[in-house]
Amino acid sequence: xxxxxxxxxxxxxxxxxxxxxxxxxxxxxxxxxxxxxxxxxxxxxxxxxxxxxxxxxxxxxxxxxxxxxxxxxxxxxxxxxxxxxxxxxxxxxxxxxxxxxxxxxxxxxxxxxxxxxxxxxxxxxxxxxxxxxxxxxxxxxxxxxxxxxxxxxxxxxxxxxxxxxxxxxxxxxxxxxxxxxxxxxxxxxxxxxxxxxxxxxxxxxxxxxxxxxxxxxxxxxxxxxxxxxxxxxxxxxxxxxxxxxxxxxxxxxxxxxxxxxxxxxxxxxxxxxxxxxxxxxxxxxxxxxx
Length: 290
What we know:
Blueprint: H1 4-35, H2 40-43, H3 47-52, H4 60-68, H5 71-78, H6 85-97, H7 101-109, H8 115-134, H9 158-192, H10 194-200, H11 205-215, H12 217-226, H13 233-245, H14 249-257, H15 263-289
C-alpha cells in the first residue's frame, strides 16, 4: 500500500527535475539574449501587442513561450527583464488565461468546445483582462517579498554573465520548486479527502468549477469528461468559459508573485472577469437557443 505523503514527494521531485531542466537553460538563454541585445530582433513581431499591455518589447519571448509551451518557460524568459509590480501582474493575468493553449484546448475539445473557439476566446479574453489591468492605478499594486531584485545586473563579460546567470537560475528554480512542492502536498491532501473523492464521482457544476479553479483545467475538465451528459450544454459551456479564464489560480499566480506580481490583484481580475464572460456567454447561448 502506497504512502500518500511519499507519493506526493515523488511527484514533487519529478516536477522539480522538469523545472530544473527547463528553467535553468531558458533563463541563461534569456540573459544572453538580453546581454547582446538580440531580443530586439524578435520582439518587433509582437511589439504593438506588448505596447498595448504596457509591457517591455523584450517580453515577447515570454508571451510566446507561455502561450504555446507553459508558464515555467514564460517566467524563465521574463525573469531577466526589469518590470514593476503592475507589469508583472499584467503578464500574470494574460498568461494565466492564455497559456499552454495546445494542450488545454485539446482537453476542452473533449467537452465539445472547438479548438479554434478555445484559442480565440482565451487569447481575446486574456488581452481584455490584461488591458483593463493596465488601466488600474499603479498604487493598487504592491510587489511580493519573494520578488527578485529590480535592478538588472551589468556583467563585465560573457563568462561573468554565464556564472552569474547560472546562480540566479538556480535560485529561481529553488523558489519555484519550493512553491510547487508545497502546492502538490496541499492539492494531493485535498484530493485525498473523503468529501473530494465522493464528489468527484458525482458530477456537478459547482464541484467541477471548484476543482478547475484550484487544481486546473486538466483535473476540472477531467471530472466533467467522466459524465458530460449529467449536465446540460449550457452548464458545460458556462463551466468551460469560466475555467478558460480562471483555473489553477493559486499555482499560476504564485509563479509570477516570485518576481513581484500582486497576488490579490491577479486573482481578483481573473475571477471577476471569468464570471462576467461566463454569464455573458450563457446569456448569448440561451438567446440563440430560444
